[in-house]
Amino acid sequence: MPFDPTKLKDWQIAEEAEKSLPTNEDWIERLGLEKDELIPMGRTPKLDFIKIMDRMENKPDGKFIEVTAITPTPLGEGKSTTSLGLIEGLGKRGKNVGGCLRQPSGGPTMNIKGTAAGGGNALLIPMTEFSLGLTGDINDITNAHNLAMVALNARMQHERNYDDETLATRGLKRLDIDPTNVEMGWVIDFAAQGLRNIIMGIGAQRDGYMMQSRFAISVSSELMAILAVATDLADLRKRIGEMTVAYDKKGNPVTAEDLEVAGAMTAWMRNTINPTLCATVEGQPVMVHAGPFANIAIGQSSIIGDRVGLKMFDYHVTESGFAADIGFEKFWNVKCRLSGLKPNVSVLVATVRALKMHGGGPKVVPGRPIPEEYTTQNLELVEKGFCNLKHMIEVVKKSGITPVVCINSFYTDTEEEVKLVRKLVEETNTRVAVSEHWLKGGEGALELADVVAEACEEPNEYKPLYPLDMPLRERVDAIAREVYGADGVDWSPLAEEKAKRFESDPKFADFQTMMVKTHLSLTHDPTLKGVPTGWRLPIRDILVYSGAKFLCPMAGTISLMPGTGSDPAYRRIDVDTKTGKVSGLF
């Protein structure tokens, strides 16, 4: 160790590192667990969080570290890689450290993005299990979600076919569901654009209720959002029961509880509440739990994972999806509020290459050579693009959480470019470290580990951006101005009408605000890089997740079913038929 990532692919590094993967017995001893607190699941056991929390209830929490980034570019910023590298670096310093990351979806894994398992010597193992379903949480969510749709369609068919008296003999009360106002669709964990819009129930009367429907990707299901914020099995069951599946013809919600399917859905998901235990290539423990969308849901691993990690580890690392304007904002104002946990440090990841793009560098097209501006020294582009990083530093500071900037180093970065970024960060009175974890693993992340550990000892003044009793439109305006840098918010008539209704109904008083916006820009326009000025945020609609208790103001259109590209990853994935080993994952 470390491996040479310039010569080995990630799956090859994982294959070698997994030869030293801790066994269940190793984990029990290393983590100080009781034997029944670890649930055997092959090479990726689960942790019984209720038993662990009961035993460690009075143990003080460790240091809480969140990882976020500048606005994403096609060049990549490396949040997962940095999260794992930081864990490895703290491990090299002899710290009791671990973390919790999101579970990847089969859609990106089999498409263009890959597994999100980190990379190089900052990689999560066992990589095959992590990338291909792990312990089945997403499958359980898929089945539970689709069971709700089975229940809905069957109920609509029977209400069409039978009168009230006949329904009563079968123990059913007419729900009078409006077929034109169905909230849910079906889910599948692949990027299947051909299923975005479907007609179901084609055929005879016995073939179900014919209606327009749709598919979304499984990780966009409200059930995944619920798993990320649930506190225990009872809370999971309650939230599932409150999910709105459709509306009746008077506009009243029809919930999973109304359809008498909530209990069975919870049965499918009963095992999902326990985090799965994986490791870095250097053997540090990393839990994997939940994987909700970041641009329509909370974009975080679970509250349960953080609660367990803060009891088991002296330093617990978690990651927010996308950049500080989306993932960190939801971590700051939603996850921390719901969990009651106060973070010590937020690590803000940036790369020289990404700063160049924010400084006006040329467009990068997947599958084509990277323009030379990104592989040769260009101090002017770096300095111009620093505005995006500076904006994100200011966002983190507004939360009261201590920021640490990580310059995630690439081999193409020049010494002068890295020095310039360091200088610019230090001028904002912010800690900064250069890290080479991809190339060197924990040894390459020692500076980052030391700076983060030092920052963890600094008292901070964590505070939400807005109080929960602030009206919805005022919350959105605060986020738009203080986080995105907008001059204000423009509401469509539909969105404003809904906002007024939600603000006046006490039922929505404790619902969280979950902004829906492109991750590719601080604005609603994905083509605008850097820090745009002189713009207003348009809100066209508001989605309701009644089980997760989210109100989701939508700035633009977000597809819940991605499409598969012309050169997807599955073309290069295969299995050795003699050993069963999977190759080609990245």
From TrEMBL:
What the entry lists under SUPFAM superfamilies is as follows: P-loop containing nucleoside triphosphate hydrolases
What's its EC? 6.3.4.3
Query: Can you tell me which residues bind ATP?
Result: T73, P74, L75, G76, E77, G78, K79, S80
What are the record keywords, sorted?
Answer: ATP-binding, Ligase, Nucleotide-binding, One-carbon metabolism
Top EC class for this record: ligase
Q: Name one GO molecular function term.
A: formate-tetrahydrofolate ligase activity
Q: Which CDD domains match?
A: FTHFS (cd00477)
Please provide the Gene Ontology terms (biological process) for this protein: tetrahydrofolate interconversion
The domain of life is Bacteria
One Pfam match, by short name? FTHFS
Which Gene3D superfamilies does the record associate with it?
A: Domain 2, N(10)-formyltetrahydrofolate synthetase (3.30.1510.10), Formyltetrahydrofolate synthetase, domain 3 (3.10.410.10), P-loop containing nucleotide triphosphate hydrolases (3.40.50.300)
Pathway assigned to this chain's UniProt record: One-carbon metabolism; tetrahydrofolate interconversion
* HAMAP family per the UniProt record, alphabetical: FTHFS (MF_01543)
Q: Which family does it belong to?
A: Belongs to the formate--tetrahydrofolate ligase family.
Among NCBIfam families, the record links this protein to:
PRK13507.1
Q: What is this protein called?
A: Formate--tetrahydrofolate ligase
| Source species of the chain | Metallumcola ferriviriculae
Taxon lineage:
Bacteria, Bacillati, Bacillota, Clostridia, Neomoorellales
